[in-house]
Request: fold
Amino acid sequence: MSTELKPLRSSSGGEFWTSESVRDFTKFGYTYPEFADNANPDSLRERINELYGPSETAHEEAREHSRREKRTPSSLRPREDQTSISHEYSTYIKAAKSDTYSVYAFIGDYSQEPALWSLADGLAGIHYVLASPLNKEVQVSGTIPLSHILQRKCKTGELASMEPEDVVPYLRDNLQWRVKAVSVLI
Reply:
């Protein structure tokens, strides 16, 4: 079944892109950095999980829960409906959709060479904006998750904790962003 992807038009004649017509995204002239040199689905899955997979906090909480279950009498265990509180962080992006471009969010240093941005250790994520030739005067918004890279900074000792009193000043000092057009730096 093919579904129209309204309001995305494929031509000035008014036809809409469909779920079938966009299946091969490479015809739009771009790809994702995670696909580069990744013909193997297992290595691609590993890279995507590394970038966007379950947070380190979730893994650590699961391991701690397992250890607690083994050593705590059932009468002292927390009820199943009790949840732990953890903090998740992201950066919010709001911009004009004037052209096709990407917003790169970094925590810490990055290369001054735009071609190397997607390989930076401090890359938190990328927000892609695809412009339509029919309607360029709209606002776009999105988020880039930051928790995964902040958790990594905690493990290396660069960040004291995931608590707001540590994270907010750290982000003020270290969160940076850059914008790159399809072929030129903006």
Summary: The CA atoms of residues 7 and 112 lie 36 Å apart. Residues 72-85 have pLDDT under 50 and may be disordered.
